[in-house]
Amino acid sequence: MPSDRKAKQKDAKKAGTARSKPKAGSSPAAATAANTANEASCKVAFQGLTPRQRAVLHQVAEQCGLGHGSSGEGEQRCISIGATDSNAPQIDIAAAELSDEAIAALLQQHLQLQPDLYLSAAQQPRPNTTASSSNGKPPARSKAASGKAAAAGSSVRYESVDAFVAQMSRLLDMERQAEVAAAQEAATQCSTAAAQARGRTLLNLRVSDAEGGLLGRTLLTLVPNKGFGTTPAVLLPAHKFSPHDVVALKASSAGLGGPPLCTGLVYRVRDASLVVAVDDPPEEGLEQPLRLEKLANEVTYKRLQDTLQQLSAPGNSSRAELLPGMALLDATFDRREPRFAAAAPAWKPVNARLDDSQRRAVELALRAQDVALIHGPPGTGKTTAVVEVILQEVARGSRVIAAAASNIAVDNLVERLAAAAPKLKLVRLGHPARLLPQVIDKSLEAQVLRSDNSSLARDCRRDMQQLNRRVMQGAVLQLLKLEPWKRAERRQVRAELRQLAKEERQRQQKALQEVLDGAQVMCCTLTGALHPQLHGQTFDVAVIDEAAQALEAACWSALLKARRAVLAGDHLQLPPTVMSEAAAKAGLSATLFERLQGSLGPAASCMLTVQYRMHAAIMDWSSQELYGGQLEAHESVAAHTLADLPSVSSNSSASADAAELPTMLLIDTAGCEFDEYQEQDGDSRYNQGEAQAALAHVQRLLAAGLASADIGIITPYSAQVALLRELRPEKLSGSLEISTVDGFQGREKEAIVISMVRSNASGEVGFLADARRMNVAVTRARRHVALVCDSETVSKDAFLGRLVAYVEQHGHYESAAELVPS
Ligand SMILES: Nc1ncnc2c1ncn2[C@@H]1O[C@H](COP(=O)(O)OP(=O)(O)OP(=O)(O)O)[C@@H](O)[C@H]1O
């Protein structure tokens, strides 16, 4: 109750002291070392186990080549494990609450299985299970608490590659239709004003600047026409455009569905402007009021369908050469166990700071002959381990394709690889408008332009231009009857032009081929791997970072190009974005990473356990809820606080304020009557009072000496993002980041303020209850996290209730009424 909490607030001690952490459990890889297939002479039938325990038993049986099967429903559900012979004797074990240790002991007694085999598999984190209690039963949790994590569970299995292809092809069609329908609805079926309200169209814009850049593209800066040139600049209305969106620019006066002046890619989004990269700007029409429309990106769907077709077509030797990844199908579709070399070749880490779990992960990846998984919870150095794997593979002479679902994740990898190995021959494939400026230099286009063959091709072009001028002059002189344009001369010039055109083309192709062939590491998005430029290029190993955010079909686009695969990710963070809810529910958002986590068993996977971002108090919530308590905070971050930041500690009055700020803070809006509202033209939600409370807390952080760039506001609802941006003080618009959870994935801030929005009498929390979404939101914070919410509403959900209780217990409580006086 708030009143109790207020009393508690007075007594509460400063949160954020470093807390000692139990050591991580035994490594899953080590646990399986001594297990070989058993010739069981009997079967053990268990009744009364939890779904988690049954899943672990299935996994253990498959790992050891034992028979297994389930029957019955609900509490009567029974799982048997042991001899494959149906006549073998059966030992029945019926117990309501068997502990994991007891199950392991029974397996040892009757089937001679090492206890560690069951216990280490049971320790593998799964979505929907929290740190299991000693009786092996997961703590009570409402169905909603696991939210979408449940929909995309690790239980997804396909009977065959063809079954997978058929299912995915259907679901991708559903997804494409959903996206096309949304684009068409915005473009034709409603008024332009309604389309703008939905965020897919921006009306009444004008071009404020047009400049060359991005290797030959034109960058058009679009600003609101209203108040053009005034100071302060007029902000764009709330919209859903983001970098890399495919867009059409039309005259405002053009009818709905009318032809565009040009199409392009969103390059940059600011509060008051939006920059679009255009290949071919129109000669006229840009001076009038304009409209920007979001288009469906059909190329991606076409590429994904092409990948599926490649997977399903029967192999032949020439295809096997072009698609070495077909060899991965056996291990990834349960046809055989993944293979590992007994030991990795000797390797000396390039990054001497790698910790033990990172070294184990790299070692596993280097031993893999088919596929290995690196499971990296937040801040544990997944990308750090991936970079090391790539550099070690290159040192062994391998050619690597390194990919991720998003451009930002690929660019992150490119930057880290280039910093670790400046001489590495690395090529970043992709449209320059989709690349971060700092990696443009590594792009295929930039490298091709720098090559000798390109410069020779440019010479050819110059010669052709001169010859063309001669042709023009000759024709004019002839026309004016001043000088005859001799036939032989004409013929010779044309032959020279043909020759030059041919040479230019050949030089350009050669330049492109040389850069592609010379690459030791090819970096691209997963769907970028299907670009025609990579046709015929094959690799020894495909490394996928952020694999748990990628559609499985997209992963195969890169995997088909290499014989071996390493996937790094965290299936307990956000899944891929899927627009069609029906397709997501039917399995489109289930990822390859998660599927393999479930099917390959612990020997093929290594979990990173030391994190380098969060104060231990922040980490512990996530670790206990989602990672079986296995995470450890590195000593460099375990006790760091806001007061230790140089910008704070150098300012004595500010540091006194900062010392008052706890590591975790609950700002409770219960009783404040800060109600949630649904936006008029959509289903997103916002909460005005809560937005004010969140911004008031930001002011407090600034007063304590934090830089605005060190603070982030995260809210799950796009309407609340728009509202917060509107209310954000002008001077903070360029530095204080406000975004949805998705916008912050993979990133971090010293202080994070979370605005949860929901406040209603019925306790509805919608997609807040998705454990993965809240996991990402909380774990973006390095030293401070403030949860702004209506504790009465959100605590109706068991998972969120535990989060609220955790913050109260390990931090400070405060009523929002004190921050936002009524
Ligand atoms: N062994 C290490 N020693 C010191 N710092 C490390 C180590 N490993 C990783 N880090 C640091 O920890 C931070 C997080 O690492 P990295 O980005 O590789 O993690 P991640 O798991 O990919 O993160 P996320 O989950 O946010 O995507 C980086 O600043 C990195 O330099």
Can you walk me through this structure?
It is a single chain. By secondary structure, the chain is α/β, with parallel strands linked by helices. It folds into four domains: about 80 residues, 2-Layer Sandwich (Ribosomal Protein S8, Chain: A, domain 1), CATH 3.30.1370; about 130 residues, Elongation Factor Tu (Ef-tu), domain 3 (Beta Barrel); about 190 residues, P-loop containing nucleotide triphosphate hydrolases (Rossmann fold, 3-Layer(aba) Sandwich), CATH 3.40.50.300; about 200 residues, P-loop containing nucleotide triphosphate hydrolases (Rossmann fold, 3-Layer(aba) Sandwich). Helices cover about 40% and strands about 15% of the residues. The protein contains 29 helices and 27 strands. The strands form six sheets. It has a seven-stranded parallel sheet, sandwiched between helices. The chain is globular and about 110 Å long. The two termini are about 20 Å apart. The N terminus is likely disordered. The structure holds adenosine-5'-triphosphate. Adenosine-5'-triphosphate binds next to helix 13. The site of adenosine-5'-triphosphate (ATP) has 15 residues, from helix 13.
Calculate the mean pLDDT score and round it.
81
Characterize the main sheet. Answer: 7 strands, parallel
Question: What is the CATH topology of the largest domain?
Answer: Rossmann fold
The largest sheet has its strands arranged as 13-14-12-15-16-11-17
CATH class of the largest domain equals Alpha Beta
